[in-house]
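ok, trying the design again with the full structure, not the truncated one.
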């Protein structure tokens, strides 16, 4: 069996604007918040005794290739979420790592492609009879006619963007006029096709998964907006996700879901593993669900390579499941090595 060295040379890949300085005290509160995941991972890996190198890319791959050739890392810890300003292009960077034959963490290119396209992933889930809200895609440059199966209220979002980009209270619509307005907003401001989806009233749940052929699921997590008016839809808008002042004002918290029966929690875990395999995911992922008023969990979307900041949803759920932050980072790297072994991508690395 191939065994990793106790101390690894880890190259942490991120967007060039998010590379944290060696002295974090030089960062403002906002700068630190913007780089929270990058700071946490770099510090976490260093705290485990690994040699940590950092490389940032934006629209040019030369810095990545140069670092790989010069430092010969044992593994690339992938935190990149976009390239050339496009969220979809992170897939191409991962494919480039495969061409360089260097082990990397997180999801494989095929899984990224499938999961990033919400329309494609939902078609696959529907084929596997996994509950997901009814939907339709409003393409740019084509007139959209609402199918009869899509009944109000509906929610409109980008077909491919992540991190709740473009999602606001106005995303939930109750008329054809408002629907047309929101589709136009997505087309014009986000420059992507729009996903039009049945809005499921209920609880917003998250499930973290870790693994490849054998997949572990973490305890179900829940998004709560405790101070929102009772008649207002509780959705993960951009502000709910990323604005600390807004979170404090509206009582936004994420925590382990309470009151789920053992049977329901087990069913959600089983469905989550089916989704993970059906979409060809690997490494780690977070699945978003709505627990409908009918008691059924509906999968909204899959998020490969989700945020893994130390206090974020994924790491908190892992900790609740018995996996603290350091071992979580180690496990993520181990999965990267295991995939590299299967694909023969360990050639040229110093792993022994």
């Amino acid at each position: 069996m191939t065994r990793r060295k106790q101390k690894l040379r880890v190259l942490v890949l991120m967007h060039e604007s998010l590379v944290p300085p060696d002295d974090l005290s030089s960062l403002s509160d906002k700068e630190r918040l913007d780089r929270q995941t990058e700071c946490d991972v770099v510090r976490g890996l260093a705290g485990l005794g690994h040699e940590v190198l950092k490389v940032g890319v934006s629209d040019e791959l030369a810095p990545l290739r140069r670092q790989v050739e010069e430092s010969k890392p044992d593994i690339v810890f992938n935190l990149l979420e976009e390239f050339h300003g496009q969220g979809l292009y992170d897939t191409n960077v991962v494919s480039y790592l495969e061409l360089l034959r260097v082990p990397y963490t997180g999801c494989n290119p095929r899984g990224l492609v499938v999961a990033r396209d919400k329309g494609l992933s939902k078609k696959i889930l529907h084929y596997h009879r996994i509950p997901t809200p009814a939907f339709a895609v409003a393409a740019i440059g084509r007139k959209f006619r609402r199918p009869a199966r899509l009944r109000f209220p509906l929610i409109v979002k980008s077909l491919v963007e992540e991190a709740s980009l473009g999602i606001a209270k106005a995303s939930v619509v109750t008329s054809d006029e408002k629907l047309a307005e929101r589709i136009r907003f997505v087309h014009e401001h986000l420059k992507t096709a729009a996903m039009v989806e049945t809005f499921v009233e209920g609880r917003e749940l998250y499930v973290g998964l870790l693994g490849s052929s054998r997949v572990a699921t973490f305890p179900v997590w829940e998004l709560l907006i405790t101070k929102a008016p009772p008649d207002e839809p509780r959705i993960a808008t951009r502000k709910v996700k990323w604005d600390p002042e807004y979170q404090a004002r509206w009582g936004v918290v994420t925590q382990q879901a309470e009151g789920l029966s053992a049977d329901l929690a087990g069913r959600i875990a089983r469905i989550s593993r089916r989704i993970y395999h059906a979409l060809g995911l690997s490494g780690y992922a977070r699945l978003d669900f709505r627990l409908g008023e009918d008691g059924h969990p509906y999968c909204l979307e899959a998020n490969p390579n989700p945020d893994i900041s130390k206090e974020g949803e994924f790491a908190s759920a892992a900790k609740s499941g018995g996996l603290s932050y350091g071992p979580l980072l180690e496990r993520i790297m181990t999965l990267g090595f295991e995939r590299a072994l299967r694909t023969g991508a360990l050639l040229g690395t110093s792993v022994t």
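Keeping the full-length input from now on. Residues 114-118+122-132+201-316 form a domain with the D-amino Acid Aminotransferase; Chain A, domain 1 fold (CATH 3.30.470.20).
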